[in-house]
Fold this protein.
Amino acid sequence: MDWSAIAASLTTQGLEVIQDPQQRKKLSTDYAHFSPILMAQLEGKQADLVVLARSEPEAIAVIRCCVANQIPLTVRGAGTGNYGQCVPLEGGIVLDLSPMQRIISLEPGRAVVEPGVKLGKLEQQAKQMGWELRLLPSTYQTATVGGFVSGGSTGMGAVNYGTLFDPGNVQSLTVLTMEAEPQRLILSGEAAQPVIHGYGTNGIITEITLPLTPALPWREAIVSFTNLSSAIAFAQNLAHQDGIVSKEISIQADPIPQYFSSLKSYYQPGAHWVMVIVSELDWLAFTQLAKASKGEIIFEQDPQSPGKKINLIEFNWNHTTLLARAVDPSLTYLQVFFYRDVEQILALAKLFKDEIMFHIEIMRIQGQMCLAGFPLVKFINGDRLEEIMAAHQNLGARIANPHTYSLAGGSVQPLPESQLIFKRQVDPLNLLNPGKLTD
């Protein structure tokens, strides 16, 4: 392939094309380094060209070029994913949609945006109108809406709204097909499902409609417990309180809090933390529940207070792993669904007490409050990691393997046939992020 000629052709159409090797390398990576397995598998994978699209017509121009020359195309947002979602396995072109930053409309209950809009910016503007997003990843300050919908699944707000897959959490997507003459599909409701968390394999998203929820005044707190079972029991109890509105409930088992440098002064060895974001309006009921559960509130703050420097969401979800690895790069992680079985967690904590540190998020799954684990693991080698995952499964837990770049390999459930059919319809030449959908 004559990449200079391809670059020249795109440049003459007004597109910004990056050919510099270091920039191409940077824009072909994400946070797959959380996994030493993925790091080895993705070593050296990078785009031959990176193209920035500022509008839908520019994205269409890149699609036409790729189809005409049978060039693989991988779409990128801010690159905050963990599974190599935006790493091009077969080279080709990385299409960076982060310049598409228009907030098309923002009204009570609904936002319509381009894929490059940062979640943090959208959240800020929505709050000025008295609304907020239902779900936010811990990377919301830098992550884009398109990247979250295409590569993410859930985050803060999961205790109320579950995941992006749940009906209603993504209202519609506008998607371009990978054809010589791209079709512009508007996928509403259930029709959008094959594209959500599809790693950009099932079409290129150019417009997203998300629901908003009324904004509440929130208060952040850390409740400390002397044993893990009490911490889990309190977290579950809080999640089930009909009169206390929570936005985030996570459990950071000892010794995970030692990795949180800006919170280190609050940590005592042996302490298990429950980190929460609850409605300011329900603060009294929350404090009484914590006291009755024999928990000690060791930290609290109003997130909107002037001079606020600590943001508890940035200690949870994937940020827990990020912060821990900043201190100890040998650590990696798992993704486990324990659902409601506390005994699984306690048995595994005893079995792997020197290898696993439990980070658990409370989230809503099919109407039930469930325990989703993101335990930190001291990495020894791939075989040992497989043994640890097998031990989880033998006890009845479900693994969503974060050490594979394959969407099928990392899913708890088999990919639905409808998703594979949709892939063949919108990408008949299999040029969109090839190698990522199935093993």
Summary: The radius of gyration is 22 Å. The first helix runs from residue 3 to 12. The mean pLDDT is 96. The CA atoms of residues 85 and 408 lie 13 Å apart.
